[in-house]
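Worked problem 6 (solution included).
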Amino acid sequence: MLTVQPHALLDLHVLLTTFPRRLDEIASQPQLVDLLSLDAAAPMQSDDRVRKAVRDLLRHGGFKPTGRSKPASEYLLRTAEDGSLSTINVAVDACNAVSLHSGLPISVIDLDRAEEPFRVAIAEEGASYVFNPSGQAIDLGGLLCLFDNQGPCANGVKDSQRTKTSAETRRTLSLIWGSQQLPGRAGEAMAWYQELLAGHGASLASVLG
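Solution. The predicted structure is:
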């Protein structure tokens, strides 16, 4: 299902999730929504060491993870500090909660909007995709990405609009972009992530990690 290009820093963990109903029919539990706050009691906490390791990971192929292209986990931190990190759906809420507190970027795509085979590799110069409904695009050159049969569709900065979850989503593929500089952290984040999803009735299968 997934091949991974050799990478000196990547500690990738991948999860296949099947939800019992469409996402618009599953409400995020209050305990999960509470985790979208920086003040929440969480089993993991991020710090400057984690943020540096994540930036080193994304920078390894030549990408510059700064400004509007900073890691998704840093974007979540800023949004949470503003008090504007809100619930979207259970798949994204679980992803955001674990990413916020672990400091690791996490991608989640709708499996039924993507096409196998999947691979993880560094995007070539000139590669890009649209990442939001308004049509804004991100330059992916040098960035570690998930590719499906149509091209790049997710990474640790911004996921593609093409494969994002929707109200109808039933199956997702999640990638925790961990770093070898943070031994065991991605595995700890994945265990917590699985716990949150299982608590909402999801069936889980580890693909990698």
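Discussion: The first strand starts at residue 2 and ends at 4.
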